[in-house]
Known about the structure:
By secondary structure, this protein is α+β, with helices and mostly antiparallel strands. Helix 1 runs parallel beside helix 3 and helix 2 packs parallel to helix 3. The mean pLDDT is about 90.
Amino acid sequence: MKITMAHGSGGESTSKLISEVFAKHFNNEYLSKLEDSAVVPGAGKLAVTTDSFVVTPLEFPGGDIGRLCVCGTVNDLLMSGAVPKYITCGCILEEGLDIDLLDRVIASMAETAREAGVVVVTGDTKVIENRGGEGGLIINTSGVGFIPDDLDVPGPFKLQDSDKIIISGNLGDHHAAILGKRMGIESNIESDNAPLTEMVGKLLNEGVRVHAMRDVTRGGLGTVLNEFASASECSIELVETDLPVSPAVRDFCGILGLDPIYMGNEGKMVLSVHEEDAEKALLLIKQSRYGENAKVIGSVKKADINSGDIGVFVRTKIGGKRVVGPMYGEGLPRIC
């Protein structure tokens, strides 16, 4: 069965779609009331985020748009030191979308929410006319997380001299999985889309002095670290041989002329931690789900604002030093 304009009418077809797909997978004490808003327990200090997901194809090696939207929203909350609690789900369905595909996506979204420890508490569904081709799907999610009152909230402007830079795993997996699927390139590369709840929870619960955290999505590691360097007026030096990239992604990049440092992920984070806590932080990440390939990849040096040393640099394999600027132009393909 396909989505028709009647599914967006607000009548019987809409009610049936909601009950047979969304309510079936998202059933909980808040959403099952089907009110216009959800009333949930709160906290004194909140983190709030919102994002929209338009990935093509909707299902890809290692994931789908349902898992992707939960991971993206949850990870954004985690990077502020928040404990993710609630998310919303707004779906824009294009006429002609296969309902079985929609059911798989929503089931995946519900499963990922359980893994991440969040509850989908409210949502909305709209149907639009087909713009040509197979029916599409856009998902908007908003998330709310609670921040402990005693937490020194990490931020890109808080990097300190001699901090160590840690990446939680291999670069470029999601980007390569999406692009490979679109181009019909056969490989064993799968998306890394994953919620980082366990990993961040361990770091904060064990008192690691985390000065900044960011999930490495569009723009890649190079763009994120440039934002850190600019906000904290520092230089960040990376060691090229320490950047973790799987052999499959490295070969993929070699074929297509891509640089893993600018490729997006959906289950990796980069963090700046106090140098004395770096070994502890690395061990905690490696002991967490999705963190087995984590590495210390560089360090921070505070710079005089007039020195010209603010930015990101990489020490190359042959001992040279090159500038790593932010990504310019469009990072193809659209990965989220």
